[in-house]
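Write out this protein's structure.
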Amino acid sequence: MIKSLFSRARNPEEKRVRAWCRQQLGITPGDLPLYRQALRHVSAVSEDRPDLPDNERLEFLGDAVLDAIIGNLLFTTYPDQGEGFLTRMRSKLVSRTQLNLLAKRIGIERVIETTVARAHESSVPGNALEALIGALFLDKGFERTRKVVVGLINQHFELKEIEKEDRDGKSRLLEWGQKRRKKVEFVVREGSGGGRGRHYIAEVRINGDVKGTGTGSSKKIAEQDAAQSAFRSMRSRKPQREEARQSTTRSSGPIRG
């Protein structure tokens, strides 16, 4: 009773976060400030409010909880598959690209507090989703968190489609570049630990332009994640280019070159 009084939404921002949680996650926050912290990027903490917590610690917790949930989901979904397959599938599902995609599909950017520009390559949405999972775990416990996360995955992704993704995206992308005489480069750097241990950040550059990014606990995993990101980026832009080409053809005649 007392807890519910203290966690009751007191301003428009809190009401918006609570309504969003009900709509997208199917839960009513018990500890509303915890969810607001999960949605607060470090860039939104001003110098005159150092007491205001950002979401980095919750992101760390959410990362661990998410790994456990995804591991359990894959273990039960694929009883006949070995460790290698399960590890690859988990890497795909918890990749920064996939988390960003899921975060955007549930509209998390509508409730994030950040001053970072909402650019295509920003990791802010995916990081906030991990932090939100950490907040949900602290507020509702593991089982309720598991049900929410599995529900989101089943609603927004097809495991069979993810399963079909090429396991060696890097080789496929390099072959694609050779056939089209395009320069494909993988640039890998070591990211900051942030309490999670060593991880790597990879970029795919095609003719000097960044077309995909990825992360992983090893350089190989980061490169594969970046390759899949590049393929998704090119697939999503192809219809738009084709539509623009057809529109130009109708108005200006055939395009040369």
